[in-house]
Every structure is written in structure tokens, then in C-alpha cells.
Amino acid sequence: MSRSVTLARVVRNKMDDLPNGPRIDGREREEMFGNFASLAFVGALHVFVCLVALLIGGVLHHWIFAFFWLAVGSITAVFGFYRINWKPLAAVLVLALATAAAMA
Fold it and tell me: What's 84's DSSP letter?
């Protein structure tokens, strides 16, 4: 029997013993909410980077720079989701906005 099947059976058996599902304490809930909020913020920053890239390409007609910032923002967002860190993506957003302002 594989380890994942055994682990799934153990988890399912433990879940069956609880009357209202899994119980988590305040510290675990706070950590889970903090991770969710950080991931949502990373996602929102990625959307803004995509919007700035579309602004650079669609309004300013510099599609090479638009594709560049879209690629850099997407790669940075993947690392941001993996490490739950929004600061590198915020730096990409600031640089993309500076590029848009310089081209306007």
C-alpha cells in the first residue's frame, strides 16, 4: 500500500471522529489567514502588473516592453506565490509604472 493512500485513510479516520470537521486553534487560524491575505495581495499585484503591461502595449504602442514586463511580472508572481512574498512583485510594478511614465 502506498504511503499517500495510508495517509489519506488516517486523515479521513481522524476527520470522522470530529463532530463538526477539523478544529484549529487561534494561532493556526491566524497563520492561515495571514497566508491567504498575502497570497491575495500577490495576486492583486500581478493583476496590476498585467494592467500596466497592457497600458504600455495598447495605449503607448510599445509591445516589446509590454511583453517584457508581462513575462517578468508573471515569473516574479510565481516566485511570490511559492514563497508568499509580495515585495519583489511590488518592485516590478514600480519599475513597470516608471517605464510607462517615461514613455508617455
Answer: T
What is the value of pTM for the model shown?
A: 0.73
pLDDT given at position 9: 58
Mean of per-residue pLDDT scores for the chain: 84
Residue type, 44: A
The cell numbers describing 25, all together, are 486553534
**Cell digits for 2?**
502506498
DSSP 14-82: HHHHSBTB----HHHHHHHHHHHHHHHHHHHHHHHHHHHHHIIIIIT--HHHHHHHHHHHHHHHHHHHH
Contacts 24+ apart (CB under 8 A), 91-98: 92/49, 93/45, 93/48, 93/49, 93/52, 95/69, 96/49, 96/52, 96/53, 96/56, 96/69, 97/52
